[in-house]
Amino acid sequence: MGFLDEAKQKAGEFLKSDKAEQQTDQVLDKAADLAKNKLGEDKADQVDKVRNAIDDKIGGQSQADTPDEQ
């Protein structure tokens, strides 16, 4: 296995990790909040749908699927 193959494999493993999920959730939450502020609360449901669709594609779990941390 070459260096690039190994790097690609490690990147893929990281993207499936809990740490990556948390980081992508934070970025998506900030982007969704910004969009809601610019578009108004009447578009909040649409923003949340887009946020969750993106999270499903890149993170694996949507925010609705994750248990609340206390």
Helix content: over 70%
Described by the principal axes of the CA atoms, the overall outline is elongated
Biggest pleated-sheet summary: none
| Helix count from the secondary structure assignment | 3
The count of domains is 1
Point out poorly predicted stretches: none
Task: Give the H and E element order.
Answer: HHH
Instruction: Provide the structure class.
Output: mainly alpha
| Overall number of strands | 0
Radius of gyration: 15 Å
Average pLDDT number: 84
Gap between N and C termini: 42 Å
| Proportion of beta-strand residues | under 5%
Main features:
single chain; 70 residues; mainly alpha; elongated; Antitoxin_Rv0909/MT0933; Antitoxin
Question: How would you sum up this structure in a few lines?
Answer:
71% of the residues lie in helices and 0% in strands.
What does this structure look like?
The chain has 70 residues and is an all-alpha fold. It is elongated and about 50 Å long. The protein starts with a helix and ends in a 12-residue tail after the last helix. It has helices at residues 3-15, 18-39, 44-58. It has one domain.
SSE inventory with pairings:
Elements: H1 3-15, H2 18-39, H3 44-58
